[in-house]
Design goal:
GMP Synthetase, Chain A, domain 3
């Protein structure tokens, strides 16, 4: 997942990005990308898939879901708190 994060970070509309596993009954986990778009830019699921296809990423490595957010949860030292994003992804599935 770290390779896909790095790839998505290179997209011109993306600022920070983090990919976490979200629960999946059949496969155990699926990838969910949390993206903060740069000011004045939009970033959609279709944009994400198209960009990855241009970079020759195989389908099985592409995140299954995209959540566009205003900010990623960070530690005081500036690291992304992925455990909070996993909790958010799990909560989204429970309310869907």
């Amino acid at each position: 997942m770290i390779e896909i994060e790095g790839l998505l970070f290179r997209h011109p509309a993306v600022q920070p990005v983090a990919i976490v596993g979200m629960p999946n009954a059949r496969l155990g986990e699926r990838a969910c990308a949390f993206v903060v778009p740069k000011p004045g830019h939009r970033f959609s699921f279709d944009d994400m898939i198209h960009f990855q296809m241009e970079q020759k990423v195989t389908r099985q490595h592409m995140p299954e879901r995209l959540e566009v957010v205003d900010a990623l949860p960070m530690t005081p030292s500036g690291k992304v708190q992925k455990f909070k994003l996993r909790e958010t992804a799990k909560a989204m599935l429970q309310t869907a």
